[in-house]
Design brief:
Largest sheet: 8 strands, antiparallel
Number of strands: 8
Number of domains: 2
Strand content: 25-35%
Oligomer: single chain
Protein backbone atom coordinates (compact mmCIF):
# COMPACT_ATOMS: atom_id res chain seq x y z
CA UNK A 1 0.00 0.00 0.00
CA UNK A 2 2.85 2.37 0.80
CA UNK A 3 4.49 1.91 -2.63
CA UNK A 4 1.22 2.73 -4.37
CA UNK A 5 0.90 6.02 -2.44
CA UNK A 6 4.46 6.97 -3.26
CA UNK A 7 3.91 6.38 -6.97
CA UNK A 8 0.77 8.54 -6.89
CA UNK A 9 2.56 11.25 -4.95
CA UNK A 10 5.38 11.14 -7.49
CA UNK A 11 2.87 11.62 -10.32
CA UNK A 12 1.41 14.87 -8.95
CA UNK A 13 4.28 17.13 -10.08
CA UNK A 14 3.94 15.74 -13.64
CA UNK A 15 0.14 16.26 -13.64
CA UNK A 16 0.59 19.77 -12.23
CA UNK A 17 3.12 20.54 -14.97
CA UNK A 18 0.76 19.29 -17.71
CA UNK A 19 -2.14 21.38 -16.38
CA UNK A 20 0.08 24.46 -16.07
CA UNK A 21 1.43 23.91 -19.61
CA UNK A 22 -2.10 23.58 -21.00
CA UNK A 23 -3.18 26.81 -19.32
CA UNK A 24 -0.07 28.67 -20.45
CA UNK A 25 -0.47 27.55 -24.08
CA UNK A 26 -4.15 27.51 -25.07
CA UNK A 27 -5.11 25.44 -28.12
CA UNK A 28 -4.87 27.18 -31.50
CA UNK A 29 -7.91 29.10 -32.74
CA UNK A 30 -10.27 27.24 -35.05
CA UNK A 31 -9.39 27.44 -38.73
CA UNK A 32 -12.42 29.66 -39.46
CA UNK A 33 -11.28 32.22 -36.88
CA UNK A 34 -7.73 32.25 -38.26
CA UNK A 35 -9.06 32.97 -41.75
CA UNK A 36 -11.45 35.73 -40.77
CA UNK A 37 -14.73 33.78 -41.08
CA UNK A 38 -17.22 34.80 -38.44
CA UNK A 39 -20.92 35.18 -37.78
CA UNK A 40 -21.70 38.77 -38.67
CA UNK A 41 -25.38 38.89 -37.80
CA UNK A 42 -28.23 36.61 -36.75
CA UNK A 43 -31.98 37.12 -36.84
CA UNK A 44 -35.19 35.13 -36.88
CA UNK A 45 -37.07 34.72 -40.12
CA UNK A 46 -40.67 34.05 -40.97
CA UNK A 47 -41.41 32.06 -44.09
CA UNK A 48 -44.16 33.16 -46.44
CA UNK A 49 -46.41 30.45 -47.88
CA UNK A 50 -45.79 28.21 -44.91
CA UNK A 51 -47.76 25.21 -46.14
CA UNK A 52 -45.41 22.24 -45.72
CA UNK A 53 -42.66 24.20 -43.91
CA UNK A 54 -42.82 27.12 -46.30
CA UNK A 55 -42.62 24.89 -49.34
CA UNK A 56 -45.58 25.08 -51.69
CA UNK A 57 -46.16 23.97 -55.25
CA UNK A 58 -45.26 26.47 -57.86
CA UNK A 59 -48.30 27.21 -60.07
CA UNK A 60 -48.72 25.17 -63.22
CA UNK A 61 -46.95 21.99 -62.16
CA UNK A 62 -50.07 19.85 -61.74
CA UNK A 63 -49.46 16.37 -60.35
CA UNK A 64 -45.70 16.26 -60.91
CA UNK A 65 -44.31 13.78 -58.33
CA UNK A 66 -41.26 16.02 -57.81
CA UNK A 67 -42.81 19.50 -57.89
CA UNK A 68 -40.85 22.70 -57.76
CA UNK A 69 -41.32 24.64 -54.54
CA UNK A 70 -41.20 28.32 -53.79
CA UNK A 71 -40.08 29.86 -50.48
CA UNK A 72 -40.17 33.57 -49.68
CA UNK A 73 -38.86 35.29 -46.57
CA UNK A 74 -37.42 38.62 -45.45
CA UNK A 75 -34.10 38.65 -43.60
CA UNK A 76 -31.03 40.86 -43.38
CA UNK A 77 -32.94 43.79 -44.82
CA UNK A 78 -33.86 42.05 -48.07
CA UNK A 79 -36.40 39.65 -49.54
CA UNK A 80 -35.25 36.15 -50.44
CA UNK A 81 -37.27 34.22 -53.01
CA UNK A 82 -36.11 30.67 -53.56
CA UNK A 83 -37.12 28.14 -56.18
CA UNK A 84 -36.45 24.63 -54.90
CA UNK A 85 -36.83 21.05 -56.04
CA UNK A 86 -36.52 17.77 -54.19
CA UNK A 87 -32.88 16.75 -53.85
CA UNK A 88 -33.36 13.06 -54.70
CA UNK A 89 -29.64 12.53 -55.40
CA UNK A 90 -29.00 13.02 -51.68
CA UNK A 91 -32.41 12.03 -50.27
CA UNK A 92 -32.31 8.36 -51.35
CA UNK A 93 -28.96 7.46 -49.68
CA UNK A 94 -29.91 9.41 -46.53
CA UNK A 95 -33.27 7.65 -46.32
CA UNK A 96 -31.55 4.26 -46.44
CA UNK A 97 -29.43 5.16 -43.37
CA UNK A 98 -32.23 6.67 -41.24
CA UNK A 99 -33.07 5.27 -37.80
CA UNK A 100 -36.39 3.41 -37.51
CA UNK A 101 -39.21 5.85 -36.80
CA UNK A 102 -37.30 8.73 -38.42
CA UNK A 103 -38.15 7.72 -41.95
CA UNK A 104 -37.49 9.57 -45.15
CA UNK A 105 -41.10 10.79 -45.15
CA UNK A 106 -40.20 13.02 -42.22
CA UNK A 107 -36.97 14.34 -43.74
CA UNK A 108 -37.29 16.39 -46.92
CA UNK A 109 -34.21 17.62 -48.76
CA UNK A 110 -34.32 20.44 -51.30
CA UNK A 111 -31.91 22.18 -53.64
CA UNK A 112 -32.31 25.24 -55.74
CA UNK A 113 -31.33 28.86 -56.11
CA UNK A 114 -32.23 32.39 -55.11
CA UNK A 115 -34.52 33.74 -57.82
CA UNK A 116 -32.82 36.34 -60.01
CA UNK A 117 -29.33 35.81 -58.53
CA UNK A 118 -26.95 34.15 -60.99
CA UNK A 119 -24.54 31.69 -59.38
CA UNK A 120 -26.58 31.41 -56.19
CA UNK A 121 -27.57 28.14 -54.58
CA UNK A 122 -29.80 26.92 -51.78
CA UNK A 123 -29.81 23.64 -49.88
CA UNK A 124 -32.58 23.15 -47.32
CA UNK A 125 -33.81 20.26 -45.21
CA UNK A 126 -37.09 20.12 -43.33
CA UNK A 127 -38.23 17.66 -40.70
CA UNK A 128 -41.46 18.40 -38.90
CA UNK A 129 -41.43 22.10 -38.04
CA UNK A 130 -37.63 22.44 -38.21
CA UNK A 131 -35.89 23.95 -41.21
CA UNK A 132 -32.11 23.75 -41.71
CA UNK A 133 -29.91 24.73 -44.58
CA UNK A 134 -27.64 27.17 -46.35
CA UNK A 135 -27.99 29.81 -49.04
CA UNK A 136 -25.23 31.35 -51.14
CA UNK A 137 -25.87 34.57 -53.05
CA UNK A 138 -22.43 34.82 -54.64
CA UNK A 139 -21.15 37.05 -51.87
CA UNK A 140 -22.48 35.82 -48.51
CA UNK A 141 -23.28 32.42 -47.06
CA UNK A 142 -26.50 32.35 -45.03
CA UNK A 143 -27.24 29.56 -42.56
CA UNK A 144 -30.84 28.67 -41.68
CA UNK A 145 -31.47 26.74 -38.47
CA UNK A 146 -34.18 26.49 -35.82
CA UNK A 147 -33.95 29.14 -33.12
Amino acid sequence: MRARWESRAGAWPAVTFLVAAALAHPPPAPAAARHGAQVLYAEALELRHTATMGLERKPGLGGDPDPMRHVTFDAYGRRFELTLESNQRVAAPVGARMKPGAGPAELRLYRGAIDGVAGSWARLASRGKDLHGMLWDGENLYVVEPA
